[in-house]
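Entry 14. Ran structure prediction on the chain below.
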Amino acid sequence: MTKLLYKDTFAVIGKMGQGSAENPKEWIMPLWDTANANFHEVEPLICKNKDGVPLIWGAMNDINENNKRWGETGKYMASGEAHLDSIAPEGWTKWIIPAQTYLVVSCTMDKYGEIFKEMTDKLGTGIVGTVHEFYPEPGNPNVLDIYFPVAEGNKKMS
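Output, structure tokens:
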């Protein structure tokens, strides 16, 4: 499923790491292990949907944290969405994700690489920032939505 979605500025708090864009699983998976093992430390800060389910994000950023696409290296945060005024506890990191319009593609983890490549090839320079992952079923990392930013701020897509 693919949809266009505007998302206002939001914050994420999580465990952040930096590594090679060629081998992201090697350094990203340990971030999830650490974040999941210590989630109780930030759980009160994490926003939840109407059913009380935490909003879980795999947020990405360039190495200078300017919301640019990855080059040879990038940053990733295994995180939960938090209120903008939340303060990250010691050992955790907070990022502010700017308001953007996203092309959101739902997929499963086994199709992630294929969908990511297909969309980045198709959208090319139309991707205006860092791509993010949203996990609508916390505890089930196999189901995710990939958020490709296609317009900055509150620009309307035609």
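The chain is about 15% helix and 40% strand. Will compare against last week's run tomorrow.
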